[in-house]
């Protein structure tokens, strides 16, 4: 390819040579052309003068002036053109040009007004022209000879340069051919080397994959074993706690204390192994939340001070006065780092003082002005200290000084590695200084995002509970828009118990029509509904002249930040997440309406049923079969797995136990058809309705405290279209549904003895 390029270059050079010749011809001819034109106009002017001098008629002054002007312009071109500079040094040029200039001046004096040319004056001019005519012709010959000589020199020079360029190109071509041969030989050698290197790389890659697989298997095994072992150990610790609360003899108390210390130590080791496994498998992550620093530090002091005093150590904690009250951080991991360092300081100290200092480290101006607080945690002790070699390997896994230290103090050497890894994942680091016999100082530096205190909505709710609406103050007329019958019944019972009047809409279109025509004080709007969602319904309400100022509160289980932002853009007044907390709802309505939004006084409220449900048979079109009692044996932890008893209590407080039983009846009979719709969407692979039906079912389950069912519905709602990896099956959903019913039946929360046949999953006789 390079040789072909050189050949093309030779061709281009040849073409350029021809173009240069033509260009030189054109430029060289310009000098001759100027001299020739000057001579021609000289002859024309002389001819016109002779004709007018000899004629007997009137003199043609216009023609004389025209020829005179043309001749003068040719003279000026010859005099001023740069291309004529080559002949301006010739004697012929220096002799004729001044005479021509005088001639032009004489002609102008004769022809230009106010002078009137006469035949005698014209005859004199003809005589002058005849006298200098031979010199004008000689000037033309000089220009021609000079141009010829110039062309010869220029062509000779360019031909010589062209020959040199062609010789250089030919030399380059030869050199290129030689280099190509050398490169071909080198390429063959490199191909052999590359093949050998590729074989070696494949072997190394296979060995690396095998090592990674073995490491992952080891880490997964450690993680599994840690999880499996933690469960019985939690039981052991719980039983030991129960023993400690019972009446024991002194020897029995000593036995229990020894057992507890051993169990605590073993559980700590298991936790460390689990953290290391999580780091290796890439599953250890940081989850920043709003954290209040003062209570966190108080907890550390409360846990560590007894340990220090037990060893006779002085424990001091100092906090900077300018610590931010709230930061955005992973509070659990932050506390883990501090506890690890303080525990080590106490463990490796036999006397003296252990101090914990919380301050800020010197940071750049950019950090200080961007809402970042440079937190510094310093843990200092007066223990055994460490030498330089120990410091070099201090943060290595399973490293703990020398063997004697490990035998004396125990431990796995994992705590510091875990702490540093956590600190780095939080954007900081840990450093240490130490001297043998003088103690050690560990310094943690973490750039934490300062945050405002969270909205004290729950606290306000507790305060508002005591504020009740007098009997002479009318309650609110509230429109509840929700596509789920169970959610509508729950909200209706809750609001009626507060003494408000409620009406219901099943979709956004109904909500818009009712809100613009019904004279309501407040709309509680679900966001995800059929036909028209809550966002569009709110936008239409805001655009309607009669309802533009009507308060609309979003009620949804979708609590992502972008959903809140979208709700605000749609014009919603407030945002409450499901499951709905009665205190939060009361506080919000009191904020909006004052005393009118508060619950009615106990004596003025009437106990009322939630909105009646439609007949199950008419709703679903499926005949109700004879009840079949579930056969279940419950395992420890089933209740915690399937039900949120705190939420159950909140609902019972809001709508009364009787109202909650009514809600459960509607839910387990599937009066809204939500369960049937979800099962149908799950069984139709790739159904576009899966997300919407799962969202609807999720809200109803969460409101009633069935967080296992709600979690399964959430995973179905967020599933990618066409993918079923990690998603619950219909049988698993039915099993969770049946377990929720069995638990409620066992606790006497529902009088529905059995689920309908289509909602029964075969029980696990082994104990499920």
What is the structure about, briefly put?
The protein is α/β, with parallel strands linked by helices and 768 residues long. It is 60% helix and 10% strand.
Question: Any overview of this molecule?
Answer:
The protein is of the alpha/beta class. Helix content is 60%, strand content 10%. The protein has helices spanning 2-54, 61-80, 91-111, 119-245, 250-280, 293-310, 331-347, 365-368, 388-392, 403-409, 415-425, 457-465, 485-497, 508-517, 534-543, 561-570, 582-593, 616-620, 638-642, 645-668, 674-683, 690-703, 707-717, 730-746; strands at 289-292, 314-319, 326-329, 353-360, 372-381, 429-435, 439-450, 477-481, 501-505, 522-526, 552-556, 574-577. The strands form two sheets. Strands 1, 2, 3, 4, 5, 6 and 7 form a seven-stranded mixed sheet that branches. A five-stranded parallel sheet has the order 9-8-10-11-12, sandwiched between helices. The radius of gyration is 51 Å and the shape is elongated.
Radius of gyration: 51 Å
**How can the largest sheet be summarized?**
7 strands, mixed
Topology, number of strands: 12
Helix content: 55-70%
User: Average pLDDT across residues?
Assistant: 78
Low-pLDDT segments: 456-466, 606-631, 762-768
For the record, give the distance between the C-alpha atoms at the N and C termini, rounded to a whole number.
77 Å
β-strand amount: 5-15%
Structural class call reads alpha/beta
The gross shape turns out to be: elongated
Specify the number of helices: 24
